[in-house]
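Thread: "does anyone have the structure for this chain?"

Original post by V.I.:
We have the sequence but no experimental structure in hand. Need at least a predicted one for the grant figures.
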Amino acid sequence: MSKILIADDNEQNSGILQDVLESFSYDVVLAASGDEALYLAKEEKPDIILLDVMMPGLSGYEVCQKIRQNPSTSHMPVVLLTALSEVEDRIHGYNVGADIFMTKPINYKELMAMIKKFLKEKGDLDLREPLDKVVNFLSDFLPPAGKQEVSGELFLAVEQKYGRQMIHALQLPDKAARYLDIAIRVQGLSRCIQEDKGKGKIKKALSELQMGKWLLPILTYTEKKSQLSQKEEQKGFCPDNDNSEDAEFLGKVAEIFLVLKTYAEFYKDHKGNRSDALTDLRRAAKAGQCNPLIVEQLAEIVKNRMLLEDLQ
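Reply from O.Q.:
Generated one for you, tokens below.
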């Protein structure tokens, strides 16, 4: 039975929503505060989280951000429920990792359609391994944090701000965000795969994972592409087994991953100066190291973010 976590301090609202969901045979867990929602998300492992924006203590935005920062909960779909209709409020929600907004009063037909959609996508992902299992399984191959070119914390922060927005802007299926999240968590493997020492071991380890058929080509493509010089031949994404996944879809995920990774590196080099990081990123795109169209998509998102911050 699919489990849904409802986080809302209004007992009447959560009670009605609980009755509706249970009438469709969903298992419902209730939280009356942000802190309780975080605890139950870790303990109950719900399939979907319905999160009210306005709650005592931690707001829905803060809860959503913390959910995305925790490897054990970062994959869970989060729906923000709100009476707020300002564009800035929605942008803020997407910036902290919300999958979708629903405006109160809730349209229950729309809600049920959305839940079915998320559960179908989750069913596809359940054929692969949970994120924490993958990270633990591959931990022996990941380089020490101090040796990584981009720290995990910095890169994760960049992805949380921009990754999901790029997925939506490029109109990719929601599962692209899950693929991107997993690739980011093990991004240190991209360099290791290209090194002679341990190369066979990593490929063998990935082959034992169901997700290896798409994760390995994404990581391999990212490292090869990032090493291209302007004079070298530009090669597109080409997985070893095109039948394993749709090559065009995986190629887009790989290109987004590469653009985010490259931007994060420049962002670190320029000590947080986003304009200088974008300038270097455009140069890299011109040199054939990443997709210029996706670079411009990221540049637009970053500039909009900077504009909003200036207005606040």
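V.I.: this helps a lot. The chain has two domains: 3-125, 131-311.
O.Q.: and The two ends are 44 Å apart (CA to CA).
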